[in-house]
Each structure stands twice: as structure tokens, then as C-alpha cells.
């Protein structure tokens, strides 16, 4: 078994980190449009700071992002030059429905994405579209509490119906929610959820998750009815949790973390709440409010494929351990003494990707695609005007080697890989520009100051060879 000839090599971005133009052509305010960079960012994305207005003294990275809104033709042409077979992007909900509850969509927003898809089609690039990628209409956050309310399902499905119908001739691959498990770790960023001091946070997060899971299943049903060729996937933040030691207490804690991580996909792929989750709810006093047909909806409309992000593995110690902690993709984890870390303290573990691919495939036996994998690093332009990001090439090369082994030696069914990110974008967790991921350098700083000109990094030319050789030249 080798990498298939139609393997979807490409790159990925998200609307709120990439587009900019936050108030142009009728777009409404998104939840992330009121999240500034700086000291308060972490508390806001975790739902602890309920600030729903723009403070002119602060900088909001989504407002400019990297100006894909005006440069999409230039960028997609660069993607084509690299040889992209696929481009994973997301829809900004408030470009289509500025408040989220309008009866009719915003035509300018629909046209913007149609133009993007036409550009992709011109270059034979397959769009993979995330319907909701850390993006909720701010109006619905204030009006109904976003995904706290079951009413969000109807608003979401209205968006889905427009997208499935309007872009029927352009898009066949859809992801319902980005990193759906991040609702447990960054609830405002993931789902527009905020908390008051007296709130039962676990109850709120899991009830909101249930609303998203029902919405995902109903979107899957709708997608098939509108276009039988549609393929619907779930998406979660992956990365196997290792026990910090062979102490059974560490092994047990790691097992529980993995269960929490797979909880959403267990439901989206297998169609029902797993027993371990029901017992956890019982122990924690969590009651999921369901309507009469909810279990049937989940059972009847599972996803077609599994997609995930992978940046690092995690290392889990029991509460009495003296293990040192580090961060990775908003997950606190014990520091793994066998792994090096990135400039932001994220463990670098290519073998962990092979392990994760095996675990996910063994668990679900469904086709998979990696839709995010990359290295956040500070890139500099040298005296010759070049960006030599050899560290990124090394990271990606090692991870793609692990992918090849998972396919060729282990037999996992993987049909694509879209690196994070296709182009430099703002960081979701920190709001920084200096934490760069792309193959294409954007000349801008953390405060959105710069020409926004595009420069090809060394990794640009390397990835082009990877795609041309179907993963043989690394």
C-alpha cells in the first residue's frame, strides 16, 4: 500500500485568521472580531471575560489578518504554483449572514466565496470547506448565548443550506466544525460561549457540544439530500496522550484524556454517546438535555470521513506527579523528556503522528485526512531577501515520513494532507503574526503594520517538490 495517486496535497487556512476585511461588503461582527491580542486574549477565548465591544485602544488581529480578502487571486495562484491539489479554507458565517438570523443571505459575501472557488477550479484545486471554524455571529452570542442555545442549530442549518445549494458545483468536501473538541478548552473561541461566576461550566460546555453534534448530523443529512456527491467529515484536534511514566496511575490518566479527546468523534462517527461518557456525566452531575429524536439523528447520520489537526502528542501525569508542564495547541501537558519543543514550547513528535493515525484508524475504520500540521516559528528575511526556514522543512519532512510509514507499513487509509498553513496567518491562540506557519511569508508585524507583500520561503520550493513527487522527495 502506497500513497494514492489522487492524494490531496495542499494547505489550509481559516477565515478569521486570514481574510481581514472584517467590516467590508456587509460582513457582520464575528465572535473573534472582538478578541484582541495581548494579556486579556487567553481569558476571553476561554469564556471568562465577557467583552462584546471593540476598544479603540486595543489591536484586534482579525480586522486586518493578512488581507486575503483583497489578495485571494494572488494567493491562490501561488498555491497553484506549489502544486496544491486541495485547499482547505473556512467560511466566515457573518459574511453570509451578518447577524446570523437574517431571512436572506448577504449577496456580496456569497459572491466573495464563489470567486474564490472559481479561482480554485481554474487551477484544478479541490476546495475542502470548513463550515464553522472558530466563527460565530457576535449578534447570536449576545442574543441567545451562541451554542448554549438549541436555537443555534436552526441558524447553523440555514447557513449550511445556502452553502450546499449555492456552491454545489464547486465543493464536495465539507467539515462541519473545526476542532470540535476545543469547545472544552477554549469555549468562546470555539463556540461563542461565555461564563458567569455561578455557572456550572462542564454542564454548559457539554450541553453546547450536544447542540453542535446534532447540528453536524443534520448538516450531514442535508448535504446528501442536496448533492449526493457531498462528502462530510468531522474535525478534531488530535494528538495521542502518552502516560508520563509506566506508573499505572499515569497510564490511567492518559487513558481518560484520550477518551475525552475522542468523545466527539465517537459520536460523529459511531453515532451514539459512548458508555464512558455517560458514566462521566453521571459522576459529574451533568445532564444532557435531549429532544425525542436526538439519539436517532446521531445514529442515522454519521460522517463519511475523519479529519484532524496534529501538532504534537501529549504527555499525561497523575495529580501527585512532579512532572514539569508545557503547552501545546492550548492543551496543558507534562513535559516529555524525550522530545524537543518549538519556540512556543510545543513538543515536536513525528512518530506521535504515526501513532495517532493508527489509533484513529483502528478506532473508526473510516477514510482520514490530516487538515492541519505545521510548525509555528519566527521567520526572518536575510540580506539576500530570502527566508531560509529549514527548521520548518525538517519538521514537515519528518511528519510526512511518518505519514508514509502509517500508509505503507501500517495500512491506514489516508487520502490527503493540507499543511498548516498555506500562507502566513495570525495565530489563533496568541493573535501573533511573528508565530508563522506558512510557505508564503507575509510582510506584516504583530500590530498589522507592513506592506502585506508575499514572499516565497525556502519551504515553498521544497513543498512543490514533495507534491510533484507524490511524497517521494522529502
Automatic annotation (TrEMBL):
<protein>
    <submittedName>
        <fullName>6-phospho-beta-glucosidase</fullName>
    </submittedName>
</protein>
<comment type="similarity">
    <text>Belongs to the glycosyl hydrolase 1 family.</text>
</comment>
<dbReference type="InterPro" id="IPR018120">
    <property type="entry name" value="Glyco_hydro_1_AS"/>
</dbReference>
<dbReference type="InterPro" id="IPR017853">
    <property type="entry name" value="GH"/>
</dbReference>
<keyword id="KW-0326">Glycosidase</keyword>
<feature type="active site" description="Nucleophile">
    <location>
        <position position="372"/>
    </location>
</feature>
<dbReference type="InterPro" id="IPR001360">
    <property type="entry name" value="Glyco_hydro_1"/>
</dbReference>
<dbReference type="Pfam" id="PF00232">
    <property type="entry name" value="Glyco_hydro_1"/>
</dbReference>
<keyword id="KW-0378">Hydrolase</keyword>
<dbReference type="InterPro" id="IPR033132">
    <property type="entry name" value="GH_1_N_CS"/>
</dbReference>
